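Illustration: ABC transporter domain-containing protein.
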Amino acid sequence: MIEIKGLSKHYRNNRAVDDITFTAEPGHVTGFLGPNGAGKSSTLRILLGLDAATSGQALIGGKRYRDLRHPLRTVGALLDGAGPVPERRAIDHLSWIAQSNRISRGRVREVLDLVGLGEAARRRVKKYSLGMKQRLGIAAALLGEPEVLILDEPVNGLDPDGIRWVRTFLRDYAAAGRTVLLSSHLMTEMAGTADAVVIINRGRVVSQGSLAEVTAGHATLETAFFALTGDRIGPRW
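Result:
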């Protein structure tokens, strides 16, 4: 389970995250939504130990990321903008990560095949398309067979078949009792993937609950999103 408890992050006089609380539970895909500048990235970075919180807690399985004994075996993550060295071959990139976490080389081949990169495993990353780089990022997140997945814009650059694969995979992953926290700007895709939704704006939670609860009274998730955030458009940080 992911637990965010009274989390705040301040940069001088700006509050990127302002006392937010929510959970992402096992067996569910939880959508994490908000306009640009709403505080999503700051929250995810704190959750993954990349930034320090001003106050509050961000826990994975009841522990801070830095206190996890085997991080990659507990949580797999893909953050927008993160990527391997362009000159490195995909299989070498994943093998280095696997070795650092005592994961077998056989698992590297498994995840490359799983995401559809088996035949491109020895190609250098600089020759990959954006969609292929996204698949490689997902493969890295899956290396440790984690109980928790945290993905930021995982379908960015994917073709329709790739998007459908991600949607099906994440729902099956959660159905096996694992926790998935998914951030995306694609409302239609989120509506077809998420069981629960958390919407933040200007650093605060403005709505959370099951997909049905958040969209109650609205035609779609998109219309609910804009109704909840539209009168406060514009980044706070």
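Reading the tokens back as a structure: Confidence is low (pLDDT under 50) at residues 231-237.
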